[in-house]
Each structure stands twice: as structure tokens, then as C-alpha cells.
Amino acid sequence: MMAVYEATATAPVNIACIKYWGKRDTKLILPVNSSLSVTLNQDDLCATTTARADLAFERDRLWLNNKEEEIKAGGRLATCIAGMRSLRREFEKTDNSLPKIAEYHVHIASKNNFPTAAGLASSAAGFAALVSALAQLYKLPTTPSELSIIARQGSGSACRSLFGGYVAWEMGTKDDGSDSRAVQVAGREHWPEIHALICVVSDIKKGTSSTSGMQRTVETSPLLQHRTSNIVPERMTAISKAIKERDFPTFAQLTMADSNQFHAVCLDTEPPIFYMNDVSRAIIATIVEYNRAAVAAGGEVKAAYTYDAGPNAVIYTLKENVKEIIELVSHYLPHAVPFKDAYGLFAGTQPVGRLPA
Ligand code: DP6
Questions:
Q1: Ligand 1 atom closest to Cα of residue 37
Q2: Is residue 172 within 8 Å of residue 30, measured between CB atoms?
Q3: 341 pairs with which residues across the strands?
Q4: To test the ligand 1 pocket, which listed residue (36, 157, 266, 308) has its Cβ within 8 A of the most ligand atoms?
Q5: In angstroms, what CA-CA distances link 282 with 157, 333, 335?
Q6: What is the mean pLDDT of residues 187-191?
Q7: Residue with the nearest Cα to atom 7 of ligand 1?
Q8: ipTM of this complex > 0.95?
Q9: From the CA of 156, how far away is ligand 1's center (Å)?
Q10: What's the DSSP call for residue 111?
């Protein structure tokens, strides 16, 4: 009987606290600054990808959520597949008994377990699952950091989804990108109390994609230079320290400040890019007031909002505050009820809220 070469892998979504925005090399996807994110619960929000290699396949093919996608020559998908194939080729050279499957074409099928209504960028989980599935198919002895270098060339933020927990993407200094990779700052078990509430403000597809938006920012925003040189390096150090020390108020303040500055460089872009809407801003005001009241009562900052290239909020908080925040958001912003307590990261949480019909 012929051997079947097939493997399946999953990768979760990640949400950045220190944002990646801008490339210094658009082909290799090398960023202008380092970034840091939290990887969400695998069970709640992830991409699952199956890859198969077969001598009988005539070309590489890929299906995303049951729909075939074109693998454009020189495009991001082709680059990732070629990168993984070349690792397999190197591996085959080390051991003559390995079957020469790097020469076979592959068929790849990927699907997301989260509804598009979540408004979450799926490319990060998608590319991370793609390289993981191929790494398993090829039985590569690679580390997640090594794989992150290839996932990065599919979508920058994908490199961070190769790890669970708290993950940094180190921008690196080399021109070939060999040191621009993800590393784990702390595992999921280190700080399991943190939860992420995803508040769906709108599920309409965003106007400006991350890829084109960030390129415009690089070309036109004078503020970006200040951010990358003077702000992000210190924030990366400070937030890593806050995570290691489980210092929520510092983690929260840095996360909110960086979301604000990311949206400020979008506004500083020519023409300006607006990702947040009035409901997004109302959620910010609600969280600011919630934190102000907590501090006024002698306590500490209890929640942090963050927004990516769209209007939906992610609120980081400690488990003990989840119920209170959901009530607060539902009360003031009934159209932005937290859709899912997605972090649960560690604890296998149940969905805690639903978007009203
Ligand atoms: C705002 O990783 O989607 O979510 O590298 O062009 O594919 P490409 O961009 P992408 O950008 C993500 C931008 C962000 C911030 C972040 O996740 O760090």
C-alpha cells in the first residue's frame, strides 16, 4: 500500500498589545518595529489546516473555508509553501532514508472556527496553521520560532500565532529577515487570569486593509518615525516586564496607550485612515470611566481596550472583572455586547455574551 502523507494543525488568533504597523521590507515582511500580542484560546478562535502531499497531484492547490483560492506565483501563499518545501529538502539531505516528498505537490484545506461576524483578521491564524500543518506533514525538526520566520512572510502578525500565551515579534536587524521572528515572553499558564472580551461593533469589512494602510503610513506619516524610534522599544521592554510580574495596571496602560498611538499614526497618514467609529470611541470612554472610578475608590486600573484595523474592541481584563464589564458594556452599548470571552485562554471558557440580533 502507498504511504499517505497528510497532517492537520490548528493555530489560534492573536491580538496585539503593542501594534505592528509598517514594513521596512514589503516582500520579506520585515516590520519597522517589534510588537507583542496575546494568543487567544485555541478552542474558541482558530484556523485548522490539513495538508497532503501526493505524487499524483499535478499542482499545489488550496481551499479556504471550502472555496478554492488561487496560489499566485510569487504571492504570499506560494512563498510560505516554497519556504516549507525548502526546509523539507534540506531535511531530506540529512537522512537518505526519508521519502522524497518535497518533490510532490500539496493540497491544502483550511477553515476558521470563528464566524466572520467576529470581525477578526483571520490571516494570522490562517498562515500560522498553514506552516504548522506543512511542518508536521514534512516531520521537520524545527522550533516554533523558526517556523514563525516563514509564517511572517504570509502575514506579519501570523508569526506571533505560532506560540500560545504572551508573544513578542522581534523586528530583527538583518536584511534577509533571518532574525525577525516570534519568541514567547510567557506561557499561557503564567498569567491565566487575563481574559479578552471581543466586542463586535460592526462586522462590515474594513475599508482599508492592514497591508495597504500600513504602507501608506510608512510613506506619509511623520509621526511613525517618532513612534518606531522613541516609543515602541521602551514599551516592548516595559510590557514584557509587566507580563512577567503579572502587573495588570501597567500592562493595561501600555496596551491602551499603544492602541491610541497606532490609531494616531493612522490619522497622521495621507489621506487619513479611520478604523474606529463612534461606538468604538464610546467603548473607550466607558473603559476610561470604569478605570477612573476604580482608581478613585482606592483600587487599580481594571481593564484595557485595544483596536486593530477595524472598529471592534478587544477588552483585556482579569477574570474577576469579566462579568462586571460585560454588564457595563451591555448596559451602555447594547449593540456592542461582548461577543465572546475569548481568552479563557487557559481555562476553557464558555461564550459569555452574544451579539443581539
Ligand atoms: C493592526 O499582519 O494583517 O492587526 O503583514 O500586511 O499581512 P500584513 O499585515 P497584518 O497586520 C496586522 C496589523 C494590526 C496590528 C498587529 O496585529 O500587530
A1: 18
A2: yes
A3: 197
A4: 157
A5: 27, 8, 11
A6: 93
A7: 155
A8: yes
A9: 6
A10: E
Considering only CA atoms, which residue is closest to atom 6 of ligand 1? 211
Atom in ligand 1 nearest the alpha carbon of residue 121: 3
With beta carbons less than 8 A apart as the criterion, state whether 36 and 240 touch: yes
3-state secondary structure of 64: strand
What DSSP element (H or E) covers 168? Answer: strand 166-170
Alpha-carbon torsion angle 200, 208, 72, 99, nearest 10: -40
Residue 70 C-beta-side C-alpha neighbours within 13 Å:
4
Q: Distance (Å, rounded) from C-alpha 259 to C-alpha 313?
A: 10
319-336 residue pLDDT tens:
999 989 988 888 877 666
- C-alpha separations of 341 from 64, 143, 177 in Å: 26, 30, 35
Centre of ligand 1 from the C-alpha of residue 66, in Å: 24
Greatest mean pLDDT among 15-29, 316-330, 332-346 lies in: 15-29
Spacing, Cα 206 to ligand 1 middle (Å): 13
Cα(210) to centroid of ligand 1, in Å?
6
Enter the pTM of the model. Answer: 0.93
What is the sign of the dihedral through the CA atoms of 165, 81, 111 and 313?
Answer: positive
Nearest atom in ligand 1 to the alpha carbon of residue 76 is: 7
The answer on pLDDT for 118 being more than 70 is no
Give Cβ neighbours of residue 132 (< 8 Å, ≥ 6 apart).
Answer: 9, 10, 11, 49, 147, 162
Cα 84 from Cα 147, distance rounded (Å)? 8
